[in-house]
Amino acid sequence: MATANPSALFDFADQLALISSEVLRFRIKNKAILSQDEKSRLEDIEIELDKVTAKVRAKGIASLGSVTATKRIEVETATKDAEALLRRIKRIERALDIATSVLNLAIAAIAGQPQGILTALNTVKDVVAGDTA
Predict the structure, then answer these.
(1) Rounded to 5°, angle at Cα 111 from 113 and 131
(2) What whole-number distance in Å separates Cα of residue 72 and Cα of residue 74?
(3) Which residue from 32, 109, 129, 130 has the fewest beta carbons nearer than 10 Å?
């Protein structure tokens, strides 16, 4: 079943409440010329309008809750997707760190720098071990 528009339900409830108020005004303004039966019927109409107003407002609240629940699910899904993207980015960053450290090792080896080779080897070891601070 489709969820009703909460705003439309609240607007409709407001209109019903206005009609009830108008019936009340009419009854009070004309109480001297209305018969007791007419007054009672108008009071009954007010009561029914107020009941229907309350029911429509309750449906508006329920519909608002449904819309809110749907939005919460959308936010949770987007959060999970973002977390997965961050994990992929971290894996890519780690791979780039490893590639950079291996490249630095190759540069040191080609340059024939024993101290550079030793430093680069330690860096490769640290990066592979996950000690990228």
Answers:
(1) 60
(2) 5
(3) 32
Rounded distance between C-alpha atoms, residue 85 and residue 22, angstroms:
58
Q: Which two tokens stand for residue 35?
A: 């018969």
Task: Report DSSP state, residue 34.
Answer: S
| Residue indicated by tokens 């080609």 | 110
The torsion region of residue 3 among left (phi > 0), alpha (psi -120 to 50) and beta comes to: beta
From 8, 110, 23, select the one nearest 57 (Cα to Cα).
Answer: 8
| pTM > 0.85 | no
Q: Which of 96, 97, 104, 100 is nearest to 120 (CA)?
A: 104
Please report where in the chains the tokens 């009672």 appear, as a residue: 40
